[in-house]
């Protein structure tokens, strides 16, 4: 199997105005970016920097309990892998 070389977009105008790689069809073009005002307000409040640690989350939220459950499931799965028959 040969390694496929994917071309990298270097045109600055296209990188600023289009979502490069959004068109997976052989024909057509990439999606054009719209002005910021046309996107919903909640989009700009998403956390894109880091995952908030569990101790910083409020225990009264659903997000806290989902994260706690996920961590417990991961811990139990790791412990079950260590058990010998």
Automatic annotation (TrEMBL):
Pfam families: Ribosomal_L37 (PF08561). GO terms for molecular function: structural constituent of ribosome. It is found in: Mitochondrion. One of its GO terms (cellular component) is mitochondrial large ribosomal subunit. Coiled coil: none annotated. The keyword Transferase does not apply. InterPro entries: Ribosomal_mL54. It comes from the Eukaryota. Keywords: Mitochondrion, Ribonucleoprotein, Ribosomal protein, Transit peptide. Belongs to the mitochondrion-specific ribosomal protein mL54 family. This is Large ribosomal subunit protein mL54. It comes from Drosophila grimshawi (Hawaiian fruit fly). The gene is Dgri\GH12746.
């Amino acid at each position: 199997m040969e390694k496929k070389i994917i071309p990298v977009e270097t045109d600055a105008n296209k990188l600023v105005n289009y979502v490069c790689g959004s068109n997976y069809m052989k024909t057509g073009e990439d999606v054009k970016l719209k002005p910021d005002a046309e996107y919903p307000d909640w989009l700009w409040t998403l956390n894109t920097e880091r995952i908030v640690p569990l101790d910083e989350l409020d225990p009264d939220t659903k997000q806290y309990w989902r994260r706690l459950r996920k961590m417990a499931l991961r811990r139990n799965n790791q412990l079950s892998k260590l058990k010998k028959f």
